[in-house]
Structures are given as C-alpha cells and as structure tokens.
Design a protein that fits this description.
Helix content is about 75%, strand content about 0%. It contains 14 helices and 2 strands. Helix 1 crosses helix 13, helix 1 runs antiparallel to helix 14 and helix 12 packs antiparallel against helix 14. The longest helix is centred in the N-terminal third of the chain and has 25 residues. The termini are close together.
C-alpha cells in the first residue's frame, strides 16, 4: 500500500463511511443521555469545586444541597442529561443531511464535537484525572470535525491523513494503557474475555489483555511508517470493531434480549468509530490514491 503525496478529492464512499460512523456516534450518545446516565454528578456533586457557588446561590448548607432539600439537583441533572441526549439526536439527524455549503449545519456539528469533548472531560474527572481516559476519546471527539472538513471541499492530502493517523494512534495507545494494567483493568473487560473467548481464570484474561495492549502500542507506532501501516491498519480495523461489538456480545442474553440491547447497544454504537476511522484511513491511503 502506497501513501500518495498528491491531493485527491474525497470519494463518495469515503464520505458515506465517515457520515454513517458519526451518525451512529451521536445516536449512541443520544440513547445514553435520554435513557441512561451521564457523569454529570461528578461535576455537580464536587464539594471542593461547587460549594462556594452553591452556598451563594441557595444560602443553604452543602448537605441540604446534595439531598435535594434546598434545590432539586437530581431533577436538574436528569433534565440536563436528557437535554444533551436530545441535542445529540439532533446532531445525528444533521449528520444524515449535511451537505457541502450548509454552514449552519457545520456549526451545529462543531457544537456537537465540543459537547463530546466536555463529556470526555467529565469522564476524565470521574476516573480520577487519568490522562488515558481523556485521550481515549480522541476518535469520538474528532470524527464530526473530520466529516465537516471532508464536506468543505477540501482534498485528501498527506497532511489530512497524518492527522487521522495521530487520532487513531492516540485512541489505541490510551486503550492499551488500560489493557496492560497501567490503569486498573475494568472488571467488565475480564468478564467479556471469559464469556466471549472462554478464558477460565482472571489470570488468563489479564495476560490476553496485556498482549493486546502491547499490540495496541505497536500498531500505533506502525501507523507512521509506510512499510508497516498496512498491518497496523488491519489490526486497528479488526480490534476497533471487535472491542465495540464486545459491548453487545459480552452482555447479551436471549431471555432478556431487548433489555440487553437497550442497556448496551448504545455503547457499541458510539464506539464503532474506533474501527471505522482506521478503515477510512485504509481507503484514503490505498493504491487508488497513488
């Protein structure tokens, strides 16, 4: 696979791939906001951060604030989460219809990307300021902006592909930091390894994740060399889609099929970009672009 040094227009298939991925990204977050929980309480219930403002606003104690006695903060948080979900649903609709030249639609998608960045900051805070937690969302935050760029009349340039390589590498490195246990390995990951892959012990699952984490690092490095980018992209495509689909497969039970999908399909939906963005880079870097 050759990396072209010439500028080429984006193909319709490439735009459709990214458009569909961004649409699913916003739909997944919309489902989460409307039906499930967003990490808003990590901000609104932070006493060190909010106490001075809360006491000024309510003229009441912090204890009365967090127990809804001075202000129904639970209702406010739930309403804000629902509103964000509706906004992301609106962004999904815009993603389906946005065309070149519709500037106000692009502005709305930029707001959508900003909201995803703020959501990443909330998860970053919720996970005790683990840097890997923040930058793991690089692909999700950037995808709407990449779509706007592709629809703006821009060309497929080496610089654009380099940006995508950086985004993919950042996402996979941060994902790998959890797999090698630099940060605590999520218990659900061990559960999925046992249920999907048949591992019978935590030790075997942890070793498998450690190996995959090392491959994440190698793939991220390989993206920046012409001789290895093909193999890195194959890995990122397969593993990106696999880790997204694991949210459904690892949590699906036939006797509660609808509930299983309702609880976990949205997690797959917004993570599919982790596989589709490497696939997009594969297309952009293919021999047909040389």
């Amino acid at each position: 696979m050759m990396i072209s040094s010439f500028e080429k227009p984006f193909k319709d298939a490439e735009i459709r791939l990214l458009r569909g991925s961004v649409l699913l990204l916003f739909l997944g977050r919309a489902w989460q906001g409307v039906f499930w929980d967003l990490p808003l309480r990590t901000f609104f219930w932070d006493q060190q951060l909010m106490q001075t403002f809360v006491l000024w606003l309510t003229q009441d104690t912090w204890q009365q604030y967090v127990t809804n006695q001075s202000l129904n903060i639970d209702r406010l948080i739930n309403s804000l989460g629902f509103s964000l979900g509706c906004f992301w649903a609106f962004c999904a609709v815009l993603t389906a219809y946005i065309r070149q030249g519709y500037r106000w639609l692009g502005f709305c998608l930029r707001l959508g990307a900003l909201s995803l960045f703020l959501l990443a900051l909330l998860y970053f805070k919720d996970k005790f300021y683990a840097t890997g937690q923040l930058f793991e969302y690089a692909a999700q935050i950037s995808a709407p902006l990449l779509l706007i760029h592709m629809l703006s009349g821009a060309s497929n340039t080496p610089s654009f592909r380099l940006v995508i390589r950086g985004i993919i590498a950042t996402t996979f490195v941060c994902h790998g930091l959890y797999a090698i246990a630099y940060y605590p390995v999520p218990g659900t990951w061990l559960q999925w390894c046992m249920r999907i892959l048949g591992f019978e012990s935590d030790e075997a699952a942890l070793y498998f994740l450690w190996v995959m984490g090392c491959l994440d690092f190698l793939a991220a490095i390989g993206l920046f060399f012409n001789r290895t980018i093909r193999y890195s992209l194959i890995y990122c495509i397969v593993w990106g889609f696999a880790t997204a689909l694991a949210r459904i497969v690892g949590n699906f039970y036939w006797d509660t099929a609808w509930l299983s999908l309702h609880q976990h399909a949205y997690e797959t939906s917004y993570r599919l970009i982790h596989g589709s963005l490497p696939l997009l880079l594969w297309w952009l870097s293919s021999k047909s672009k040389a």
